[in-house]
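S.,

Sequence below, as promised.
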Amino acid sequence: MNRTWSGWLWHALQQSGLIRFFLTLGVVFAGWMHLQAQSQLKPDLTVVPPKPMREFRGVWVATVSNKDWPSKPGLSVAQQKAELIDIFDRASRLRLNAVIFQVRPSCDALYASKLEPWSEYLTGQMGNAPEPFYDPLAMAIDEAHKRGIELHAWFNPFRVRMPGGKSAPASNHVSRVHADWVRSYGQQRWLDPSEPAAQQHSLAVILDVLRRYDVDGIHIDDYFYPYKEKDAAGNLLNFPDEPNWRRYQAGGGKLDRSDWRRQHVNQFVQTLYTRIKAEKSAVKFGISPFGIWRPGNPKQITGLDAYEQLYGDARLWLQNGWLDYVAPQLYWQIQPPAQSYPVLLNWWASQNDKKRHLWVGNYSGKVPESWPAEEIVNQVRLTRRQPGASGNIFFNMTSLKNTRLAKSLSERLYQQPALVPSTPWLDNQPPAKPIATTTAHALGKLRINFQAGDAETPHLWVLQTRTDGRWNTEILPGRDKSHELGRLEARKSDLIALSAVDRCGNLSSTTVIDTRARK
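The prediction came back faster than expected:
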């Protein structure tokens, strides 16, 4: 039978078995290529992305006398909300990671409370709720958390009324309901810390917020007893706690009056810390004392004696571990030796035997009228170089509207986001390794899907992408379920890394995906 040349060749190959060989080889090669593509979509365990930076970057948002928010009392609810959103937008743009929000300036409330009246700084009249109703603290927590920012609720534990109060006290204000707890001092009114019922009231107010709101921290400042005032003759006024002091002496008390006052403050601080941990152990407790513990500590330091005049023994609280962070208000410049910023910073670090967080208070409000922006920049740099210190808190938010200071912070110091330092004495167990998958879009975008590795919902996600050998880090809210890379970023990124972070700042191991098989 006649055959063409090609037909004869095909017959010969069939007879020799070479066709079967080449077909088998093709199947094996295709399978190998498929496995290679699949392996590139699985975690690449040989790649270790850089650890995210750890640094506390906080700001105080003061509501007393409308320093930061709202800008004035009596604004419409829409205006109040817009101003509050702007605060958190600004914090996010500056890559801050914590807002310390004043919720109780003077035995009043910037949140819905059954224990104390609505603040006059909100509506213009103490006791009047916002209309239409909303809860500023609940809103602040939501706005913070949707941006991956911590919200610490800031309380003044004993201040009752400021000199500039504009409206009459509400019928349920402590000055009217429990006038026997309240003392008049100069132009102020104050809860007497030596009154056990007054202490219990302030504890109840703070713990009520802790139970009902998803706060990340509880914060109190340096106002335990009031700063000293003078009478018309220029003499220092004594705090009017004479009846309780005499009662203590009559009962056989041996402390002198200053130690007796400090004892009440120490008792309040210790009890508050213990109660916070019993209710929600992961919520941090912080105090921002006056920046000088006592003059002469260290030797060159002069100034107000907070130990003797405010009766706050912040060194004792730090050494006993009755707080999770201390934020001494180092509101002085670097150079003058009498209140030298680096000298005081080093002293506070040297007292921190239990290794609690040292997050320094910086007086950014001095810029630009009194200080150049460079002063604050250099203070942050000094803090970073000080062993034992791990962050800064700026007073106050309004000062960060200063364009030059904000630009210096965002472009020179806070170029990348940072995680709040972990708190291992509260919890040192990292969350489970998360699950990450990717979904490609027709337009070239890439969606990264997040899933917790166990039943615990992460507090934050750390998402890192590698482009041209360089890693970029984003810190995202734990409520997020996915994140989308734009077309250009998706095309250029070859590795994606995902980690989970819990409420105490513990970081999980990392899931890494190689995206090159999709390209």
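Residues 364 and 370 are 10 Å apart (CA to CA).

Coffee later?
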